[in-house]
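Take a look at the protein record below with the fold in mind.
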Amino acid sequence: MSELLGVALISYLIGSVPWGYLLGRWYGLDVRRSGSGNIGATNVARSLGRRVGLLTLALDAAKGALPVLLAANASLWPSAETSPETRAAIAALGAVAGHVFSIFLRFQGGKGVATAAGALLALAPGAALIALAVFAALLLAKRIVSLASLGAVATAPVGMALSGEPRAAVLAGVGVAALIFVRHRDNLARLRAGTEPRLDERPRTR
């Protein structure tokens, strides 16, 4: 149990690093007061340009993948009593929770999509690639980032279950999807109302 608590805490702290906010500050902007107010790559790209948005995307994905890879590395846990699969699943959840509820931003954060993508790619690459394909297809068809993101995270745990991933990984996928759906509740309301902005539209500034 102490191992899993350690994995969860370390993963949460890594996930909590608010790269979008930090990059915004580097360029003299608090992205929480620009566009949608989100610290994720989409709002950073709208506020500071595509290059900074892509850098945010890469860093957020990396902070999701790194804890999972560290947790699954047996050589780092020579006397571990828990399986690598269980540790990796806890790490994935911890990293996404850290991004969503960042301790460095008073437990405020982003919506977790890029961090989830990195974590799930490290946890279950096959299922994650299917989810990314769903994301790309929905984004091309509808040009709504939130819709594509929700479709992808909903697909991931289903793909894990169908491809025979360990139960811990499937449960982590469900947990990650639940976190992201909760953080997208405003987007879901706008999707139902037909007012969610498309990729080339700028949301109202807070």
The mean pLDDT is 94. The two ends are 43 Å apart (CA to CA). Residues 2-193 form one domain. The chain is about 70% helix and 0% strand.
